[in-house]
Amino acid sequence: MSSQSFEIISSLRYDPALPPVLAERGVDASHDSLNSPYYLLPYHQDRLRNAAANFDWKDALNFLQQDTEQFSRFLDTFIPDKAKPWRVRIVVDRSGDCKVEVNPAAPIQPQTLFIPFLPRTTSNPWRVYIDTESTTPSAFTTHKTTARDFYTAARLRSGIISPQDDAEVLLVNPRGEIMEGSITTPFFKRRGDNLEHNAAEWITPPLASGGNAGTTRRYALVQGFCTEQTIAATDLVEGEECLLSNGVRGFIYGRIVLKGPHS
């Protein structure tokens, strides 16, 4: 694909409720990645930097090298009303030009953005399908870009038409391993009978399986909530509980649906 035909992106939630919720819940918010109305902003900036470096976009990388406080002030200029939550989409091209798209964010409980304050109920979980075709890992699955046709195709194969659908599809590599979700990072309960004492209860696919280096994925690993483990698509069972996460919606419960909507 021509380097002229795509941009690197990252989407995150702006929510003025985040710092007060952290203070109220007694969460250690000393780390800059948490103590901000921009959810995990340093991780999003790192993600963009890593993508720019991978594609050898020197001008974009120079723009992204600004410190996080300066970057936060830059984003502030696009927020229409700082008293409301927003979905912020950062789009950077190879020349270092940055567009910021801001839209109203769907209401959520701010606690679901933070570990261990995960959703407390499994009622109305998202439907989680497994793609019926494989996706070949590439720089465009590791890094988030506007080249997303293969994600769109996977969603359509599973009958997911709208971004507002409470549904997700898991991409599978040619080895039959779960890579990631089309818009989320997936987490599953640990496999095996001989689990290590005090080991994390949840697992997520390793980057070696070809999925995206997501920001909530990094957060969950840093917090010790999960570990990496290769997950075969054939190991997932009907009705299995899982978690999904992204930088706009936080952590969401889901259930595996092996029979697609068109079966």
TrEMBL record:
InterPro entries: Aminotrans_IV, Aminotransferase-like, BCAT-like_C, BCAT-like_N
Domain of life (superkingdom): Eukaryota
SUPFAM superfamilies listed in its UniProt record: D-aminoacid aminotransferase-like PLP-dependent enzymes
Gene3D superfamilies: 3.30.470.10, D-amino Acid Aminotransferase, subunit A, domain 2
Molecular function via GO: catalytic activity
UniProt-recorded name of the protein: Aminodeoxychorismate lyase
Source organism of this protein record: Aspergillus rambellii
